[in-house]
């Protein structure tokens, strides 16, 4: 994809995200094209359909989340438990600061247009999380009698529900407190005994980068 074509795609993604936020999960291709200052035909050329565009916007959100809290995360803690607590802080901060997050984990998560994107991201999280727990078990950090696949599935589900509740609340809980509460849940699920000081969530950039 050439630089011009890539730039057009980026503008369309950014414009579509803004339209979805303003429309509370709804958009029209004409409005997106107008905001991006391109023809509606070009929007269809890049994404095929409105459903394809919505899916691409959600996928873009998850790519940035992955960079902020998972594969691209820059974690400074020296031990495993503190690194994972720091990761939770980055995960919470990203969702708190990204204006698209409430829609992605709320109404759009149930939209048929993004089902494949949601499934793919969740599968990657589950696989990576299970590998992380298996490594921690080999190092003697996490008890070896825990099923890593079942444990990570329960943890990811619980964390997501906690985050949905926080983002949808009339008054959001303090992100540092939410991070500490989520980590306490994780530490209990993993039967960790070592105590570490709370980690303040890292600041992340809002919206698309």
Describe the structure.
By secondary structure, the chain is mostly helical. It has two domains: 1-48, Arc Repressor Mutant, subunit A (Orthogonal Bundle); 59-209, Tetracycline Repressor, domain 2, CATH 1.10.357.10. The protein is 67% helix and 0% strand. The chain has nine helices and no strands. It has helices at residues 3-22, 29-36, 40-47, 50-69, 80-97, 101-105, 115-138, 148-168, 175-189. Helix 4 (50-69) runs parallel beside helix 7 and helix 5 (80-97) crosses helix 9. The longest helix is centred in the middle third of the chain and has 24 residues, at 115-138. The chain is elongated, with a radius of gyration of 19 Å. The two termini are 19 Å apart. Mean pLDDT is 91; it is low at 195-200.
Any key phrases for this structure?
mainly alpha, 209 residues, Arc Repressor Mutant, subunit A, 2 domains
Brief sketch in words of this structure:
This protein folds into two domains: 1-48, Arc Repressor Mutant, subunit A; 59-209, Tetracycline Repressor, domain 2, CATH 1.10.357.
């Amino acid at each position: 994809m050439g630089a011009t074509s890539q730039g057009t795609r980026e503008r369309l993604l950014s414009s579509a995200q803004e339209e979805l936020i303003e429309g509370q999960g709804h958009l029209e291709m004409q409005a997106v094209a107008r905001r991006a200052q391109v023809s509606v035909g070009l929007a269809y050329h890049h994404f095929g359909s409105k459903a394809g565009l919505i899916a691409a916007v959600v996928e873009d959100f998850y790519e940035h989340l992955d960079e902020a809290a998972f594969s691209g995360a820059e974690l400074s803690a020296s031990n495993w438990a503190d690194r994972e607590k720091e990761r939770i802080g980055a995960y919470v901060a990203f969702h708190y600061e990204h204006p698209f997050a409430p829609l992605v984990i709320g109404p759009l998560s149930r939209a048929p247009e993004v089902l494949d994107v949601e499934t793919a991201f969740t599968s990657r999280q589950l696989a990576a999380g299970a590998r992380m727990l298996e490594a921690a078990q080999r190092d003697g950090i996490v008890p070896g009698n825990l099923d890593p696949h079942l444990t990570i599935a329960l943890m990811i589900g619980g964390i997501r529900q906690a985050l949905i509740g926080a983002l949808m609340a009339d008054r959001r809980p303090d992100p540092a407190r939410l991070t500490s509460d989520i980590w306490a849940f994780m530490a209990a699920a993993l039967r960790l005994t070592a105590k570490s000081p709370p980690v303040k969530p890292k600041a992340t950039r809002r919206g698309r980068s």
